[in-house]
Amino acid sequence: MTDISGDLQGKPTAASRTTLSHIMTSHDTNLLGTVHGGVIMKLVDDAAGAVAGRHSGGPAVTASMDEMAFLVPVRVGDLVHVKAQCNWTGRSSMEIGVRVLAERWNESTPPTQVGSAYLVFAAVDADGKPRQVPPVLPETDQDKRRYQEAMIRRTHRLAKRRAIKELREQRAAEGLDD
What we know:
Layout: E1 11-12, E2 18-23, H1 37-56, E3 60-70, E4 78-89, E5 93-104, E6 112-123, E7 136-137, H2 141-173
Parallel strand pairs: 1-7
Antiparallel strand pairs: 2-4, 3-6, 4-5, 5-6
């Protein structure tokens, strides 16, 4: 949906928020007997992808994953909940924040946060070209804080990319890299 100027109308944070839940089995374990980090990362990417697609109203692809933190090991039999929401939007990109919680399947204790991540998705059209996304409209004070923090992370990502490019160009000019 667009407004009179042709720009997309904003969507509230809650419009695309989602939770994906999965019980961990022995097929998900690593050599230490806990759930493999890659399994958790796949769930994180799946939940974030659902949010990005919902928010953008169509296909979106993972562009990067920032700050994947594994806080507590996940065990076989844990019920894992992956909660994701759109924190920030640019013209065609979105930052999706993800929180991973786990609880024992057979206990009634509160879930424990076991991980978190920030992913950047790019909305694409049928030809794989970037397409415009609606702005996210933070609703709560927590949503507004997440939006501001996402802007800081974006600034850091861009500064890091720029610094690496400049270093590579300088080294190439000096004949140090081939």
